[in-house]
């Protein structure tokens, strides 16, 4: 079975766009997606990279670019006024849900991505996060338990280190075999590699 690895962070708007597009591509090409939640902040730290938002002109351009891509993909997007949000707990949550079950993982991702980029909420605020989780049928108490679990912390750390070791410097990043593709604007190359 063909597969594509998807390294992402829920704080990355371009990961959000890829999250909506990649499943369509994988399905059309008969490929599996290997979901690889990583900590983008850790990747930035290890590689000396930084968010486009840290450069004012690039940040302004990125907002226009995101709207163009969202329109191109037919996906809703809104700027989250609470940015930047530290995604450490959110990404530990993603790893924890993934270790529990596919269904819970995908329900979690849908809720978090939506609250980040469709109906922006302050996910750095624990009460806001709890409300988003509850609305998605996910127990906030379970989330709290997961983000404190050492195995989950280690798994996120290892995936982030593996990403850096394999050349990842930003999100989203895809691998088809050893071939790396960075950015939702390279999805046509991912599609070609899967063909």
UniProtKB/TrEMBL annotation:
SUPFAM superfamilies per record: Thioredoxin-like
Known EC number: 5.99.1.4
Active site per the UniProt annotation: 12
Lineage of origin: Bacteria, Pseudomonadati, Pseudomonadota, Betaproteobacteria, Burkholderiales
InterPro entries (alphabetical): DSBA-like_thioredoxin_dom (IPR001853), GST_Kappa/NadH (IPR051924), HCCAis_GSTk (IPR014440), NahD-like (IPR044087), Thioredoxin-like_sf (IPR036249)
Coiled coil: none
Official protein name in the record: 2-hydroxychromene-2-carboxylate isomerase
Keyword Chloroplast applies: no
Chain's gene name: nsaD_2
């Amino acid at each position: 079975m063909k597969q594509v690895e998807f390294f992402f962070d829920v704080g990355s708007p371009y990961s959000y766009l890829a999250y909506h597009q990649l499943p369509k591509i994988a399905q059309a090409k008969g490929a599996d997606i290997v979901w690889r939640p990583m900590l983008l902040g850790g990747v930035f730290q290890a590689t000396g990279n930084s968010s486009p938002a840290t450069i004012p002109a690039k940040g302004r351009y990125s907002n226009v670019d995101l709207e163009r891509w969202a329109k191109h993909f037919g996906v809703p997007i809104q700027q989250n006024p609470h940015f930047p949000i530290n995604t450490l707990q959110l990404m530990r949550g993603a790893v924890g849900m993934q270790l529990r079950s596919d269904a819970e993982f995908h329900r979690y991702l849908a809720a978090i991505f939506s609250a980040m980029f469709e109906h922006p909420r302050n996910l750095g605020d624990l009460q806001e996060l709890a409300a988003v989780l509850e609305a998605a049928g996910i127990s906030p108490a379970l989330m709290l338990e997961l983000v404190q679990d050492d195995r989950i912390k280690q798994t996120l750390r290892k995936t982030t280190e593996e990403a850096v070791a394999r050349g990842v410097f930003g999100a989203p990043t895809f691998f088809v075999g050893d071939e790396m593709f960075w950015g939702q604007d390279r999805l046509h190359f991912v599609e070609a590699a899967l063909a």
